[in-house]
């Protein structure tokens, strides 16, 4: 396995590093501390990043994007997240779903939705699955249970699906211009056999945005409620066959793999930032007349932080490489588990080294810890993800 980077990969890595240093870091803490969660978003930052290509990076060159490979995605994400992991996620949330427009939509749908997405620097995407009683189930559906799964109902009325119900905790829910939505189209069977996917523009009649969630971590990243009251979505916006949204063949969809890699690379960026902060403190801060770097316990902690971070980096790059080689393996899911454990331990160690100077919010150390705890409930919670890992046994 050769991990040396080609010229294009290096170029993207440098662009992301420069953007993180010059545009993200200077505003990160101030945005994090804005009290109203709906006000933390910074459209100027999104526009600037979009012009460089971060928003549309994964759309193929033939379709008007940049067609970057998975290794490049991991590199960009880690660099941007080193600046601010929530800001970088706002860009990569568009990767997940623009990737799906290319992979799962018809040519006609691509014409209608891809061009506006590519042309508008403020066009961000979202995807709605989670509901009040349907979170982890969406990722690892319980077999044959009629009560489980989403309740948002869609009924046919001529050329329209009529939607009633709510989604919650949807990323970009209060700012996205287009959503991938899973709706229940048959309640007489388990939801795995009765769910359909629709493309839902933000200005669909009968759809309105609800509250923006006030999260402890990832405050820049918007999470909102979606409310549907007789919302009318044209049947021509349906993706794939009716009731087949969750039929993914081998049960290990490339969409899921895609999400896990991007998130694991994001966690790596946080770890890098935590290591930098801890090393900088150890070099410059004294206790009992001695720099922290001379204290054995601090050296041990920083050694462990570096070891965990470098192990995660190797795993992330290996999974990215496997994706590029079209190798399907359990690593695609396991990397998310490792990234969760790693980012939480590394940021906690960083906070530990900072001790009472890490608590105040002006150093950004508490932010790294708060952001890292988002991983427990991302893309399925950590328990469900361990179940995925359990597939190795079969
Ligand atoms: C920042 C962020 C962004 C998100 N973005 C989106 C988005 O864009 N679109 C979207 O649809 N959703 C999104 N979500 C929601 C996310 O996917 C869910 O939070 C996740 O799937 C977990 O679901 P839940 O919160 O309902 O927890 P639940 O599934 O209700 O789980 C609650 C608790 O019960 C435990 N538990 C659940 N099942 C079991 C079991 N079988 N055995 C043992 N313990 C169990 C879990 O470990 C957890 O501790 C986002 C969440 C976050 C934090």
Q: What does this molecule look like?
A:
This protein is 47% helix and 15% strand. It folds into 3 domains: 7-119, Orthogonal Bundle (Butyryl-Coa Dehydrogenase, subunit A, domain 1); 125-239, Beta Barrel (Butyryl-CoA Dehydrogenase, subunit A, domain 2); 254-393, Up-down Bundle (Butyryl-CoA Dehydrogenase, subunit A, domain 3), CATH 1.20.140.10. It has 394 residues and is α+β, with helices and mostly antiparallel strands. A hairpin with a 2-residue loop joins strand 9 (286-287) and strand 10. A 4-stranded mixed β-sheet has the order 1-4-5-8, covered by helices on one side. It has a 4-stranded antiparallel β-sheet with strand order 2-3-7-6, with no helix packed on it. It has helices at residues 7-32, 43-52, 70-83, 85-104, 107-119, 136-139, 254-284, 296-324, 331-354, 365-372, 382-389, and strands at 125-128, 153-157, 160-171, 178-184, 195-201, 207-212, 223-234, 238-239, 286-287, 290-291. Helix 7 runs antiparallel to helix 8 (296-324). It contains 11 helices and 10 strands. The chain starts with 6 loop residues before the first helix and ends in a 5-residue tail after the last helix. The site of flavin-adenine dinucleotide has 20 residues, from strand 1, helix 6 and strand 3.
């Amino acid at each position: 396995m050769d991990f040396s980077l080609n010229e294009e990969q290096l170029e993207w890595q440098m662009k992301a590093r420069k953007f993180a240093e010059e545009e993200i870091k200077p505003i990160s803490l101030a945005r994090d501390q804005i009290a109203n969660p709906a006000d933390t978003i910074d459209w100027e930052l999104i526009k600037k990043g979009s012009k460089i290509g971060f928003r549309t990076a994964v759309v193929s060159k033939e379709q008007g994007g940049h067609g970057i490979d998975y290794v490049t995605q991991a590199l960009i994400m880690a660099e941007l997240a080193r600046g601010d992991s929530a800001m970088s996620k706002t860009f990569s949330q568009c990767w997940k779903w623009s990737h799906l427009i290319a992979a799962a939509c018809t040519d006609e749908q691509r014409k209608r939705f891809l061009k506006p997405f590519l042309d508008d620097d403020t066009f961000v995407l979202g995807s709605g699955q989670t509901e009040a009683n349907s979170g982890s189930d969406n990722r690892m559906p319980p077999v044959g249970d009629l009560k489980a799964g989403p309740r948002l109902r869609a009924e046919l009325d001529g050329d329209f699906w009529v939607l009633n119900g709510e989604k919650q905790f949807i990323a970009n829910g209060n700012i996205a211009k287009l959503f991938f939505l899973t709706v229940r189209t048959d309640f007489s069977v388990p939801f795995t056999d009765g769910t359909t996917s629709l493309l839902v523009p933000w200005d669909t009649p009968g759809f309105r945005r609800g509250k923006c969630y006030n999260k402890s971590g990832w405050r820049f990243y918007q999470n909102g409620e979606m409310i549907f009251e007789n919302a009318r979505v044209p049947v021509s916006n349906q993706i794939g066959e009716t009731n087949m949204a969750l039929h993914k063949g081998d049960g290990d969809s490339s969409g899921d793999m895609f999400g896990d890699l991007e998130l694991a690379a994001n966690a790596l960026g946080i770890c890098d930032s935590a290591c930098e902060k801890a090393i900088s403190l150890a070099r410059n801060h004294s206790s009992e007349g001695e720099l922290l770097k001379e204290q054995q316990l601090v050296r041990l902690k920083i050694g462990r932080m570096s070891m965990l971070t470098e192990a995660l980096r190797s795993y992330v790059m290996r999974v990215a490489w496997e994706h590029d080689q079209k190798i399907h393996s359990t690593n695609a899911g396991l990397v998310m588990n490792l990234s969760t454990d790693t980012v939480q331990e590394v940021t906690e160690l960083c906070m530990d080294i900072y001790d009472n100077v890490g608590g105040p919010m002006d150093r950004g150390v508490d932010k790294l810890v708060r952001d890292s705890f988002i991983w427990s409930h991302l893309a399925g919670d950590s328990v469900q993800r361990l179940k995925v890992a359990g597939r190795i046994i079969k």
